[in-house]
Amino acid sequence: MFAGTLRNDEMENHWEPKILAFLCNWCSYAGADLAGTSRIQYPPNIRVIRVPCSGRINPLFILKALQGGIDGVLVSGCHPGDCHYLTGNYVGRRKSATLKRFLEYLGLEEGRVQFSWVSAAEGGKFSQVVGEVVQDIKKLGPASRFVKEKLLVRSSEFGVKTKNNLRTPN
Questions:
Q1: DSSP state of 71
Q2: Is residue 122 within 8 Å of residue 31, measured between CB atoms?
Q3: Cβ-count burial 98-120 (b if 16+ within 10 Å, e if not)
Q4: What domains are there in the chain, each with its CATH number?
Q5: Mean pLDDT over residues 39-62, rounded?
Q6: Are 129 and 38 in contact (CB under 8 A)?
Q7: Side by side, which strands form the sheet with 72-77?
Q8: Exposed (0-12), middle (13-18) or buried (19+): which is 68, by Cβ within 10 Å?
């Protein structure tokens, strides 16, 4: 075996989920910032997109992330009743309920997309939520449903001859 290459069973043991998080600017993003400045540890699997309000997240953004190969999505906003835009998190809550039913109808595993409420003063809770989401996604395994764009690898690296030396991994 070449240095730096892993067998399939080794890759499964070393797999870490990629999680995309849409965080409300006023509460959840500030909570994440508080966790960081307080040096509260949480898994590094999360990639954050700061949005003005959880109610402004288009459900198509979540579907597009899943199509692109993201293993899990977290949407987090202000607690209901504490929105800086008055009713934005209520809109987000209704969208999340509708999206969950739609994803269930499509056959996506429950837990692949999660929603939470974290305030600016809850850095510890943010860390806890991220840890729980990472553990839930690890239990589900890598995303395979709805993934449209697969990573291409050079077949010559595996000693396989194909047209243009490209193939999709199994």
A1: S
A2: yes
A3: ebeeebeeeebbeebbbbbbbbb
A4: 18-167 (3.40.50)
A5: 96
A6: no
A7: 46-51, 19-24, 72-77, 113-117
A8: middle
Mean pLDDT value of segment 35-63: 96
Number of residues in the chain: 170
In 3-state terms the chain splits into helix, strand, coil percentages (rounded to 5) of 45, 15, 40
Question: How much is the pLDDT for 19?
Answer: 97
Q: What count of Cα atoms within 13 Å lies in the side-chain half-sphere of residue 120?
A: 8
Which tokens is 65 given? 């992330």
Q: Which of 56, 35, 59 is closest to 129 using CA atoms?
A: 35
CB neighbour list of residue 58: distance below 8 Å, 6 or more residues apart: none
152 phi/psi in degrees, rounded to 5? -95, 135
